[in-house]
Amino acid sequence: MYDTNDYHLLFKMIMVGDSGVGKSCLVTRFKEDRFDPRVESTIGVEFVSKTVDLDQYKVRVALWDTAGQEKFHSIARSYYRGSACVALVYDVTRISTFESISRWLRDAKTNRPSHCNNVIYILIGNKIDIKQNRQVSYEQGVRFATENDIALYAETSAVEGVFVQEAFKECANLILDKVLQKQIGIAGFEDDMCNSGVKAGKLAAKMLMHAEGPPSPNSPGKVTLIKDKNLKVEKDSCCSSRS
Ligand SMILES: Nc1nc2c(ncn2[C@@H]2O[C@H](COP(=O)(O)OP(=O)(O)OP(=O)(O)O)[C@@H](O)[C@H]2O)c(=O)[nH]1
Ligand SMILES: [Mg+2]
């Protein structure tokens, strides 16, 4: 299914959240940098991928865009396994979608083997272009992220293209850091005990698989925040192996 020629690593990510929060629009914005006003509610799961450059690495981001409607939840569940990242998406203008995030997070955690805790969770508050109807504040999003070991919180607009590329790219960066620190294994290698959602492409340099040094400890409670171009607070900057 994937072209294995043109990237070093492939990261599988799954997008979940209530129906209508804008998951498919975010995916289209990420892939093609456009907004499709005629988007229809997703049936089952759709797949989109795009290669991004992270320093010297070409990384293929493979997104599983799941359907938020209740009747499709059982299909989505089978995609948690084998994902390096779970993107939890809500609509900042509908508080019920924010309240559902706990359930989506629980769902994600219960559908992974208990010893496989290296998946990265990110939280996305979408539709910030609708300023007058906002029901969930930025602070509420940050609080939830901090209290639930979410690695990254971003507020986005798929309509205006605000922080969509940044959110996915930063998420890929977080995964790459964990791979380089050997906290996440690469499929097919002995350190991948968990079907990590990370695969090597043909460009994968040997240094990736045989990186020096012991695994670094996790950094719970550190959240990368993406909100304002001039205010990107990165609390986790201590642990980047590429800096
Ligand atoms: N104003 C605004 N509307 C948006 C944004 N993103 C999506 N929408 C609208 O929200 C509606 C739902 O978008 P989808 O992308 O289909 O939502 P979804 O989460 O994929 O929904 P399901 O596939 O049913 O799970 C559409 O009418 C979009 O036009 C955004 O950033 N701002
Ligand atoms: Mg959809």
UniProtKB/TrEMBL annotation:
Belongs to the small GTPase superfamily. Rab family. It comes from the Eukaryota. NCBIfam families: small_GTP. Keywords: GTP-binding, Nucleotide-binding. PROSITE patterns: RAB, RAS, RHO. This is Ras-related protein Rab. The keyword rRNA-binding does not apply. InterPro entries: P-loop_NTPase, Rab_GTPases_membrane_traffic, Small_GTP-bd, Small_GTPase. GO terms for molecular function: GTP binding; GTPase activity. Pfam families: Ras (PF00071). Signal peptide: none annotated.
